[in-house]
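ZP: hey, is the S-adenosylmethionine complex queued? I don't see it on the tracker
AM: it wasn't, my bad. submitting now with these inputs:
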Amino acid sequence: MSRPLAPVVAFYSRHPISEGQIVDALRRQGKDLERLAPEDLYDFDQDHYGGLEAVEALGQRAGIDASSHVLDVCAGLAGPARFMARRWGARVTGVDLNPDRAAGARRLSAAVGLGGLVRVVRADAQTLPFRAHAFTAVVSQEGLLHVPDKATTLAECRRVLLPGGRIAFSDWIATARLGDGERRRLGEWMAAVTLQSIQGYKALLAGAGFLAVGAEDLSREWIAILRKRLEMFRGLRADTVARLGQARYDEYDQLYAFFVGLVEAGKLGSRSRSFLTSAGSLTFTPVGTTRSEPPLPVTWARS
Ligand SMILES: C[S@@+](CC[C@H](N)C(=O)[O-])C[C@H]1O[C@@H](n2cnc3c(N)ncnc32)[C@H](O)[C@@H]1O
């Protein structure tokens, strides 16, 4: 039975990072909203771990350059998409399920003059509304954790990729130490579903027709990043309370602290070198790639 998507839409409609929060932050900085540059948004529009450095690394693994047409799955407010367009001059199409985020992404991209390179479509990653072979690369950051049917989603990514195109993504990875109760709470509190191990992802990727999968463990880096991120959310307290209410602020603080605790305990992501867990650079080639086709696709996963 397919899982309902309403909880994840609701989760992001009540998230501390939003278009309104970004615009308010820019106003407080005294920015002229009629004359914004992409760089003006960078401190506010990246809803993943590791900021622009992580997008840069992901883009390199995906082989992005000025000739690329990139699909960003679970694109959020299109912060990473705008960075890729600015950094490499690539065309980027983002897909996000949440209508507020998709509309906000479009407005923010237009506001910084990137409406021509960055397009955002409201859609479910499990049924991508694009023709086959439409993209040279697919990327995703901290979004697949919310998508129930990862096998179908990866098959969709494979379908819309050109033969030889690359997929690179980062995601939460569950270790064997993650308990059933903790897994359930992540689902109920953070709309995190069907969390995978690296081995699980490798099997799913192979099933979707990707080869040569590589994975990179980023959990050690993520611990420091997540602690800072918890502080960042706490720094947004006044904003979040004004926008979403004290109860939602308290709820989010509690669930985020729970999540960070799981990573610190090695339950989401492992520090073991012998087993790639929380992050991965999964490198593949689609089945059927020939020598004359472009280089090996890469998926970079982390949790
Ligand atoms: C943590 S945010 C990451 C956003 C963006 N990748 C970034 O790094 O800024 C996860 C995003 O996934 C989106 N999402 C969740 N489930 C989805 C689905 N089934 N299809 C498309 N987007 C989805 C959410 O709406 C949310 O914007």
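AM: back. Strands lie at 69-73, 91-96, 118-122, 135-141, 161-170, 279-283, 298-302.
ZP: great, adding it to the tracker
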